[in-house]
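All the exercises in this workshop are built on plain-text protein records. A learned vocabulary of local backbone shapes supplies the integers on the structure line. Once this layout is familiar, the rest of the handout is easier to follow. An example says more than a description, so a record of this kind follows:
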Amino acid sequence: MLNVMEEKGYIERVSNKSDRRVVYVKLTKEGEEFLKDQNRKFENFTCQVIEKMGEEDTDNLIRLFGKLYDVIEELQSEK
């Protein structure tokens, strides 16, 4: 996955000068722009979905996601 992102110019790998085993992954300007664009697209799509669902269904979905989150938290705390 990182190789593909690097080929597209979204990231660059930077070696640690004091420890050559360590490689940092840095987001490039192109990567930042791509990420911003994807976030905008996701936000627009989410707004379209909410608009189609309507207020009542959206409220129910939010309530159910909240309940799901609570159940997951409860199950994880039992481990």
Summary: The helical segments are 2-7, 29-53, 55-77. The mean pLDDT is 97. The chain has one domain: 2-77.
